[in-house]
C-alpha cells in the first residue's frame, strides 16, 4: 500500500499551514549559493499547492517572508521579491484553471511597487475561485497581526472582546484555524507565525529541508496528523 492510499480521505485536515524553512541549508549542503535554495523552494511550493488541491484541502497557508526576514542581506530580499513576482506571473493561469483563490496574510505595503501590484492583481483575479484557498504569508508577523487587531478593537470601542471579535480582525478572518502545522528543516520553534490561530493545531516537524519536501513527505505529515488524538482539552 502506498502512503497516499493509507490516507483516510474522511479525516483530512481542512487547513494546513507550513513554515517553509531550510532553503539556505539545502543549498549549503550542496555547496550552492542560498538563492539556488530559494529557487528550488519555489518548485516545492508549486508541487505542494497542486497536491493540496488534488486532496481537496480547503486552505493551505505558506509562510514565505516574515517581518523579521527584512534583517537579511538586501540582495537576498530582492531575489525573494523577484522569485515571488515570477511565481505569480507564471502561476496565474493555472490558478484560474484549477480554481485556486490566492490571498495574502501580512502587510504588503513594504514591498516594491511592482511586487505589490502583481500581488494585488493575482488576489483580485482569483478572489472568486472556489477550490483551494492559498494564503501566502508575506511581511507577516503574528504579533503585528495581533497589534492590528487590538487597534481595530479600540477603534470600534470594544472593551470586552470575545474570541470571535479578535479572530474577525486577523488576516485569516472567516477561515478555519489550521488543523495541521508543518515546519521543515527541524527547528522546534514558531518564529512569529499564526500565534492566535495555532492554539490547537497539531504540530509536525520534519528534518527534511523545504526544497526536498516531496509528495511522500507531505503524505507522511498528513498520516501522522491522522494518528493524533485531538482532545481539545477534553478527556
Ligand atoms: C526559508 O528558508 C525561506 C525564507 C525564510 C524566506 P531559509 O532561507 O530560512 O533557509 P535556512 O533556514 O537559512 O536554511
Ligand atoms: C521562518 O523562517 C520564516 C519563514 C519561513 C518565512 P526563518 O528562517 O526566518 O526563521 P528563524 O530565523 O529560523 O526563526
Ligand atoms: Mg530559516
Oligomer: single chain
In round numbers, the mean pLDDT is 98
* Biggest sheet character: 6 strands, parallel
What is the name of the CATH architecture?
3-Layer(aba) Sandwich
- Residue runs with pLDDT of under 50 for 5 or more positions: none
Shape: globular
How many distinct beta strands? 6
CATH superfamily: Decaprenyl diphosphate synthase-like
Give the CATH level 1 class.
Alpha Beta
- Compressed to H and E, one letter per element, the order equals HEHHEHEHEHHEEH
CATH overall fold name:
Undecaprenyl pyrophosphate synthetase
Domain tally: 1
Radius of gyration: 18 Å
- Beta-strand portion reads 5-15%
Going across the major beta sheet, what is the strand order? 3-4-2-1-5-6
Proportion of helical residues: 40-55%
Q: How would you classify the helix and strand content by structural class?
A: alpha/beta
- The number of helical elements comes to 8
What are the bound molecules?
3-methylbut-3-enyl trihydrogen diphosphate, magnesium ion
Amino acid at each position: 500500500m502506498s502512503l497516499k492510499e493509507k490516507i483516510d480521505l474522511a479525516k483530512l485536515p481542512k487547513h494546513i499551514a507550513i513554515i517553509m524553512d531550510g532553503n539556505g541549508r539545502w543549498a549549503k549542503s550542496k555547496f550552492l549559493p542560498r538563492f539556488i535554495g530559494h529557487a528550488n523552494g519555489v518548485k516545492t511550493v508549486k508541487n505542494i499547492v497542486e497536491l493540496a488541491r488534488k486532496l481537496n484541502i480547503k486552505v493551505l497557508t505558506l509562510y514565505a517572508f516574515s517581518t523579521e526576514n527584512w534583517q537579511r542581506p538586501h540582495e537576498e530580499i530582492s531575489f525573494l521579491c523577484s522569485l515571488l513576482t515570477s511565481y505569480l506571473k507564471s502561476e496565474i493561469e493555472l490558478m484560474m484553471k484549477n480554481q485556486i483563490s490566492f490571498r495574502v496574510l501580512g502587510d504588503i505595503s513594504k514591498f516594491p511597487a511592482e511586487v505589490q501590484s502583481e500581488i494585488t492583481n493575482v488576489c483580485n483575479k482569483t478572489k472568486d475561485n472556489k477550490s483551494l484557498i492559498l494564503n501566502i504569508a508575506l511581511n507577516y508577523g503574528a504579533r503585528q497581526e495581533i497589534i492590528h487587531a487590538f487597534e481595530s478593537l479600540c477603534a470600534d470601542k470594544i472593551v470586552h472582546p470575545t474570541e470571535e471579535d479578535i479572530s474577525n480582525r486577523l488576516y485569516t478572518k472567516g477561515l478555519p484555524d489550521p488543523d495541521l502545522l508543518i515546519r521543515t528543516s527541524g527547528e522546534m520553534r514558531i518564529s512569529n507565525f499564526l500565534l492566535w490561530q495555532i492554539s490547537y493545531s497539531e504540530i509536525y516537524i520534519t528534518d527534511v529541508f523545504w526544497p526536498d519536501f516531496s509528495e511522500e513527505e507531505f503524505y507522511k505529515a498528513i498520516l501522522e496528523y491522522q494518528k493524533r488524538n485531538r482532545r481539545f482539552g477534553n478527556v
